[in-house]
Amino acid sequence: MKKSKKIAVFALCIALAFTLSFLETLIPINIGVPGVKIGLANLVVVAALYLLDKKEAFAISMIRILISGLLFSGAFSLLYSFTGGILSFLVMLFAMKSKKISILGVSVLGASVHNIGQIIVAAIVMQTPRIVYYLPVLLISGAAAGIIVGIISKIIIERLIKIDIK
Fold it and tell me: Is 44 exposed, middle or buried (0-12, 13-18, 19+ CB in 10 A)?
């Protein structure tokens, strides 16, 4: 890919991930469980993992977390999001490289590990291990979100491969 095209694709991915993060703030998901989200921006991260350089995919994830956190959340939210995002990305990267796990599986693992990372930070910040009792709820919601994101990501990746994004 030419450098100019690479920069444009990178910028578009960041813009799309940020836009999806913003749109998600507008979706009133209230199932009585705080912190439950679909993770729409992860559509871009999962697709980038499969279609772009891994460093670029990681940068897209981290830049999106930073911009979204600064505009929509706060310092503590950034701490939770960065921890979850880094752990999630690493697990998705290793799962993807194993070649034994589908895009759907990679997405579900990423969502689940993201929640585990956030619970670890919450236990440290709140200085109580009792927050771990909240983990099963987050894992179930994370798996559901991971399935949705995985299915849509697979479709996006297949279509982008057809138009030769690389």
Answer: buried
> Is the backbone of residue 150 left (phi > 0), alpha (psi -120 to 50) or beta?
alpha
> pTM (2 decimals)?
0.89
Taking the mean position of all CA atoms in its chain, how far away is CA 30?
Answer: 20
Q: Tell me the per-residue pLDDT of 41-51, one tens digit each, with 9 for 90 and over.
A: 999 999 999 99
129 vs 142: CA distance, rounded Å: 20
Structure tokens at 154: 């697979």
Following DSSP, what letter does each residue of 31-74 receive, concatenated?
SS-TT----TTHHHHHHHHHHS-HHHHHHHHHHHHHHHHHHHS-
Burial degree of 55 (CB within 10 A; 0-12, 13-18, 19+): exposed
Give 91's contacts (C-beta < 8 A, 6+ positions apart): 109, 110, 113
* pLDDT for res 2: 84
